Known about the structure:
By secondary structure, this protein is an alpha/beta fold. It has helices at residues 41-52, 95-101, 127-150, 162-165, 171-185, 194-199, 213-221, 262-266, 278-285, 303-306, 344-351, 356-372, 375-379, 408-413, 435-453, and strands at 31-32, 34-37, 57-60, 72-73, 81-82, 87-88, 109-110, 116-120, 123-124, 207-208, 226-227, 232-236, 242-246, 249-253, 256-258, 271-273, 289-290, 292-299, 313-318, 326-330, 337-343, 380-385, 398-399, 420-422. A hairpin with a 2-residue loop joins strand 13 and strand 14. The longest helix has 24 residues, at 127-150. InterPro entries: Amino_oxidase, FAD/NAD-bd_sf, Flavin_monoamine_oxidase.
Amino acid sequence: MHVFSPISRRTFLGGFSxxxxxxxxxxxxxxxxxVIVGAGIAGISAAQALRRANRSVIILEAxxxxxxxxxxxxxxxxVPYDHGCAWLHSADQNxxxxxxxxxxxxxxxxxxxxxxxxxxxxxxxxxxxxxxxEEAHENLLRRIDRAVDRAETISDFEDRSIRDLxxxxxxxxxxxxxxxxxLEAGEETKRISALDVYRQIGTGVExxxxxxxxxxxxxALGPVAAQLNTIVRRIDWQRPEILVETNMGRLRTRxxxxxxxxxxxxxxxxxxxxxxxxxxxxxxxNLPMGLLDKITLQFKPAFRSLAEEAETTGLLIQENNxxxxxxxxxxxxxxxxxxxxxxxxxxxxxxxEPDADxxxxxxxxxxxxxxxxxxxxxxxxxxxxxxxLQDPWARGAYSNAPPGQANARKMMxxxxxxxxxxxxxxxxxxxxxxxPGAYLSGRRAAREVIEMLN
Length: 454
């Protein structure tokens, strides 16, 4: 169910390497209670829960860092920059909110209170356009809720896409669909299950972390010893002891928690012996990855004179009736930067370009000239494009349930033979696609392992 916030000129829709160790080899001399594949939020959450229960755990991470799609760094722009998750969605119910608030040096700001600027055809939209967009966005979400609520039970609801449930009737309707689809779910509304969206928590309370949301989460979770640059090639679970083969060697364990994105399971980047059951492989295939990318631009200090009224201000720009709607955050936390967002099919079409970094940065810069004029080019310093689709360990931003596949999340969460366990945002319903989903799923998988070991 969803709580709606008004859209107007005044509102907007919505490192830690010292903690990880990269070994020269993986030792197979001992039998661990659990091997965790992936040191993202789900994997770390599971590891901490298992260690509190005095269980032996080994975390394997293919990257040269921990965090997975939760990644804050300050090298690119000299300020904390979240490549992935950056919002505490439904912050009043989000279990990560209090965890971050309790961390020294971290603060939380109300993202939902910031301005929204809507520009159509090179000029600011009329007050009527703001009102119509607010109404269109509210109506789209309400139609989802009402359609499911009308069914006698959720199992009686005949799931369909958001677009089929509420086809856009005009330009503002299409912008509302872009907000709910590509710019939120990372997918076109014609490919998003209405039931999946209905099940997600949405209170309308949106907060951000100036020091980096991913950094705050990882600090709250605490130090973790993960074996980095360790690629899991094969999981052999046909014997009483599970054998995990990596590029660094072999491990013996009683159980495995797999936290990799659904894309990697669907592509069978890890070989399972014997194969995973058909129902598990089908669940991964039925939850393909959506794509939402950031194109972040940094400017000289004089940029603030062009955007003197903007600070963590939302901006939606559509150049003409048929063009892609861009979303930007202007001067996030007062920095002379903009963070642009593109999702869905548009993001996919750009991701594979040979010179994708240059192309996307140029597109973002060109898009902003409709508001700031050509002077903005003289102030440009550098840019960064996340391009999550080309990340070999992500292959997208987060999972999406197509129409009729909302229940695939429950299948993704189910253990296999009480020996292989699964965690990650794709395995939950109420917090799917989000960091709290990863966190809670890791704890759930750890409980399942502990129960099995006991």
